[in-house]
């Protein structure tokens, strides 16, 4: 469904992604794990068209995404849940969700997807008229995911959805990730919480200073000495 081939990204002289190749098949949950500054966010931003690669190609369902604009990439079926729950703080919950559907004109479909988001996140339905900036951290994360789903993506890119959440909420969010996938959305998830990420994903990649250093079925990575020592606390 998605394939990246030999992607190089630079920020000035900083070589942030070094020949990164990666693929995601339809229906999968794939995770990319790595330490702070390894290049995880840069990778998602490159797929979304927010960062331009210097070399390499990105393909999605037969289309070349490499030089496409972010809004075209959303229209092709890729939504991004950014890190740090970036919701529009002054807009209400409902307005934030509507922003997620801004490229769509199918009113009935939009309404159906709103209901789907409320079924996943009943909390949001109770807070529809509340400014998003007044939601708790966990609720803002739910809203950021809900907003991305309102574009009806085929592929959902998730940037550290568990960051800063209490353990019980982390469990909830990972349960929701499974449910979204079971409903037919393919997911590429980046995480520092390697334990949870390897639990939910079928396959995984490990990135270190801009380079993919390991890849394979999650179960195999979980057994790897290197992953255990560096990412699972020994
Ligand atoms: P974290 O988990 O801390 O968010 P990350 O794995 O997502 O880290 P990135 O945010 O992709 O890492 O950053 C990769 C590298 O690129 C880092 O060295 C970072 O300092 C650098 N970098 C990221 N964004 C920029 C930018 N806009 N300008 C310059 N350097 C940047």
Explain what you see.
This protein starts with a strand and ends with a helix. It is 38% helix and 26% strand. Helix 3 (93-100) runs parallel beside helix 6. The chain is of the alpha/beta class. A six-stranded mixed sheet has the order 6-7-8-3-9-10, with helices on both faces. It has a four-stranded antiparallel sheet with strand order 2-1-4-5, covered by helices on one side. The relative contact order is 0.19. It has helices at residues 40-47, 70-75, 93-100, 107-120, 122-126, 137-149, 167-182, 194-200, 218-223, 225-231; strands spanning 2-11, 14-24, 29-33, 55-60, 63-64, 78-81, 155-159, 186-191, 203-208, 211-217. It folds into two domains: 1-77 and 156-233, P-loop containing nucleotide triphosphate hydrolases (Rossmann fold, 3-Layer(aba) Sandwich); 87-152, no CATH class. The longest helix has 16 residues, at 167-182. Helix 7 links the parallel strand 7 (155-159) and strand 8 (186-191). Adenosine-5'-triphosphate binds at residues 11, 14, 16, 34, 36-42, 192.
What is the averaged pLDDT score?
94
Provide the CATH superfamily of the largest domain: P-loop containing nucleotide triphosphate hydrolases
What characterizes the major β-sheet? 6 strands, mixed
CATH class category name of the largest domain: Alpha Beta
- The global form is globular
Q: Are any ligands bound, and if so which?
A: adenosine-5'-triphosphate
What is the domain total for the residues? Answer: 2
| Contiguous uncertain segments of 5+ residues | none
Side by side, the strands of the main sheet go 6-7-8-3-9-10
Q: Strand-and-helix sequence, N→C? A: EEEHEEHEHHHHEHEHEEHH
Radius of gyration: 17 Å
> What is the CATH topology classification name of the largest domain?
Rossmann fold
What distance separates the N and C termini? 34 Å
Task: Assess the beta-strand content as a share of residues.
Answer: 25-35%
**Alpha-beta content class:** alpha/beta
* Helix-residue proportion: 25-40%
CATH architecture of the largest domain: 3-Layer(aba) Sandwich
Number of helices: 10
